[in-house]
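Need tokens for this chain, all 281 residues.
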Amino acid sequence: MTADLYCVMGNPVEHSKSPWIHARFAELTGQALRYERRLIALDGFAHGVAAFRAEGGRGCNVTVPFKFEAGALPGLRMTPRAALAQACNTLRFDADATLADNTDGLGLVNDITANAGVPLAGQRVLLVGAGGASAGVLGPLIEAKPAHIAVANRTPDKAQALVQRHAALAAQHSVVLAATPLDAAGGPFDVVVNGTATSLTGAGVPVPPTVLRPGTLAVDMMYGPAAQAFMDWAARHGAVPRDGLGMLVEQAAGSFAVWRGVRPPAAQVLAELRQMLEQAR
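Here are the structure tokens for all 281 residues:
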């Protein structure tokens, strides 16, 4: 059986655990595929996509910093959630078109509610950042029906634009949605999600500790060493820290389902991956 080719495109990308995750998904579901990392030049995303498709690639995941660029490729057939986010993390190359989807938000919500066991309905949520990562998760966060979501960003206008784009969805689900500067986010919140690039750059936590209370779930979308500073900060202030490994596996399961029509056992693979990483420490 010929194995179909998939990849993750990003810059940086060498740290990605996606090849292991998708290989395990394929093993558990009996799907024939191989999955690679592709380091893409910062000015070469469209060329990288075209070249990969010409090689026979069937689809790809998109990671930083290309999610907005992926959502702006010409001739896409976009799912409603990708269109709302204006960013995508999943491309599927069909014979007649390229399907663009965004599974980040469903991945985050599934990890918080199922894997971490924290309900979102009726809660106060702070989303830090208004870039591609945050754009991808805001819609599904709204659909989980928290009482209030604040979007905090260094550039308030960018947060306001993201909020405006999601205003109708928030009204539909009776969610209070507001934009705020980083230093005036208020609080405390029940759930805090860091969607900024500060974890990758080693910069400090971008919001004050007043956003936390004892027991707040504080999630960094990054995982491994990149998430450690945020998690340490959250723990010091009495919050419950969580990295983005569960979100990674859950969004990968969503992408796998888009590509293969089969939903893999994400919880099992997450448990195996955490054990593997713990043993490697």
